[in-house]
Structures are given as structure tokens and as C-alpha cells.
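Below is how a single chain appears once it has passed through the pipeline. First comes the sequence as given, then the structure the pipeline wrote out for it. We keep one example in the README because the format questions we get most often are answered faster by looking than by reading.
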Amino acid sequence: MATAAAAPPLYASSSSSSSFSSSPNKPLFNNIFFLRPPLPSTKLTTTPRLSVSAAATTAVELGQAPQSSTPAKTLPFRVGHGFDLHRLEPGYPLIIGGIDIPHDRGCEAHSDGDVLLHCVVDAILGALGLPDIGQIFPDNDPKWKGAPSSVFIKEAVRLMHEAGYELGNLDATLILQRPKVSPHKEAIKANLSALLGADPAVVNLKAKTHEKVDSLGENRSIAAHTVVLLMRK
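Resulting structure:
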């Protein structure tokens, strides 16, 4: 008498000491009309599968938001962006990057109003995940009245080194209608590099007009953007 073949197991599985996987061992073909000979179905199964491993169970915990296993302070790179804008008024000096620029008006501010150094400070603080320049050096503190912005940038650089980082590169853009920055560009870049303790090759400075649009284009204000890349020492 013929003996019926044993039914195939419902699930095919493999396992080791640290992982387990399973997939349905269903027949691959159901109600199908073949126009050509089917492919050999040996060792083929349908696709829904289950995998449980030590790595997966430790990486995902139900009910908890995913978190980085690397503390932020150990990240190899950090990026920060800074922005600043000041109103231009007669009777104030115009200081950009620590350089006194001849002009008929300057930045109205609690400190010396150096828009470039202010946004560089904010970019470094942002990369470190720290509060902005207004919180660390508040404009209602008499101590900072008329203070040179080099004080702020030196403190930002100190915090950067304290956190274990150094400047990878910096890219800054000044936006002003007048005066022309090009005659002073190299002096500004050299002074900024010195304040940062960085090679001038990693410090870039650009300047643009605002095409006579709004307060920037009407010579009533000046603005700057800065992006910095910090690298783990």
C-alpha cells in the first residue's frame, strides 16, 4: 500500500544562538493558468517573513522613540548657521570682521555692531548646540555696552575647543548695498582667521548687494550669513 508523503512543515526556519528567522512554507502556486512551463519551485517560498535577532531586539524597544547610540558631543562633525542684521545710522562706526570700514554711517547696536563677527559667533554656538549670542551676551547687560565683538568670538572659540572641536571651514556672506567690500576683503578675512585661530585657507568671505531692494538695498541696514563646519579633534 502506498504511503502518503509527510506534509511539509508550515514554516521553514533557521536559527542560531543570537537570531531566529521564519517564513511561511506555503505552496508557491495557487490557481494559476500557465502559458509556459513554470520555474522550478524547489526552495521557493512566498515573501512575508519574520526575523528576530539580538541586534534587532536591542535596537528597537516598543514605546520608546529611537535615539542615537552616539552622544552628541562625540559626533565627528557638527554644522552651524548664523545670521545677523543691523540698522545703519549716521554717527556710528562701520566695523566688519574687526576692520573699521570708512562710511558715512555705521551699525546701531549695544556692542560695536560687527555684523560679521556676530553671525560667526552664532554659527559656532549653533554647531555646539548652545544658546544664541543674545542669550550669552545679552544687550541689557551694561558690561557689553560698546564691547568689541572680538570678545564674543574669542569666547565662542574657547567653547568650541572646550567641547573638543576645531574649525573645519567657514563660509560667510555679507549683504549690503554700500560701501564696496572688495577693497577691504582680504584684511577682513585675515583678521577673522586670526581671531578664529584658523588657516585663512578654510575661511571664505563673499559680499553681495541687495539690488536696491528693501532696507538692505537702500543702505539702511547690513546683514550677514555664516555656515561653519566643526571637526572633532
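The helical segments are 54-59, 115-127, 133-136, 150-162, 185-196, 214-217.

See the next section for the split statistics.
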